[in-house]
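Could you help me review a protein record that somebody else here produced? What it holds is a sequence and that sequence's fold in C-alpha cell form. I need someone to confirm that the C-alpha cell line plausibly describes how this chain folds. Take the sequence as given and treat only the C-alpha cells as open to question. This is what I was given:
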Amino acid sequence: MTSAEDRAARRALTIARDCPPQARTIDITTLGRRSGRPRRIEMWFYRVDGALFLTTQPARRSWYANLLADPTLTVHVKHCLTADLPATALPVTATARRRRVFGRVLEDLSQYLTPDQTSALPPLEAWVEGSPLVEVRLSSDRAAILQKNANARGERP
C-alpha cells in the first residue's frame, strides 16, 4: 500500500456521527488464542475523542479473548475503499475511561435505533462492567508490532 493509499484508508476510519451504519462496518482478523489460526469477523467501530475503539454488548467474545492473548490484528476497511491495516489492540480497563467511551458509544448507537430498540439496550453500567473494549492503534509497520509482541512473550515471531 502506498503512503497515499494508507492515508486514504485512515481517513475512511475517521467518521462523522451522522455517517450511515454501513460506514462503521469493518472486518477484523485476529489470531485464535488456542489454534493460532486467523479469525475474521465483521463488526462496528467507534470513534471517541479521536481514538478508534472496538466493542460489543456485554458478553464474553472470542475476538476479545484472542486480542488479550495476542494484541496484533488487521483492520479491513470496507467502505469508501478497501484496505487492510495492521494494528494493535489495547484493552481499556480503567473504569472512568470505560464509562466515558461507552457513554459515547451508546449515544452513537441510539441515533440508528428506534426508541424501543434503544430502551432494550443494556444500561451504561452493564456495558462498563461486562463489555469488551479495546482501543485500536493503527501501525504502518506490522513487522515491528509482531517483533515487539514476540519479545514480550520471550519468543521469535
About this structure: The CA atoms of residues 10 and 138 lie 8 Å apart.
